[in-house]
Amino acid sequence: MGDELLEEFWIAEGYEKPKEVMMPTNKTQRKIWELMEYPDSSLSARIIAFISIAVIALSIISFCWETVPSDSEDKQINMTTGELIDEMEEKHYSPFFWIELMCILWFTIELILRFISCPCKVSFATSILNIIDFVAIAPFFVNFFL
Predict the structure, then answer these.
(1) Residue ranges of the Ion transport domain (predicted)?
(2) Where are the domains of the chain?
(3) Over the stretch 4-23, which tens digit does the pLDDT of each residue have?
(4) What share of the chain is helix, strand, coil (3-state, %, to 5)?
């Protein structure tokens, strides 16, 4: 009866009962899931969350900086043949390409680790935020491999 009274009091005061969170049963998966999803669970999780935010900021800054006209480079010429280097090959010389590559690799590893360690694959795959994550990184790989 004490728990019921306490729960009624919480509801009357506007507190919501915390939802029970599904956690992976495998010890390794649970640890990875906590590292990736719960920054308050440990110092390591906080560091990973900080790195994720820093990589997001770096990606945004790099994307914006790449579009500044004064910093765009002229077409590169192969000095041996005198021919213009094609656009894709030229892009590989750009520091922005390498920054984007490192950021995309971080996002991909993070998404894969979260998927592998999640307690419910279906709810993970249908979550709108995870769909957005996938849609955000997929074009890079399509463009890179085609």
Answers:
(1) 46-145
(2) 27-68+81-145
(3) 777 777 777 777 766 777 88
(4) 70, 0, 25
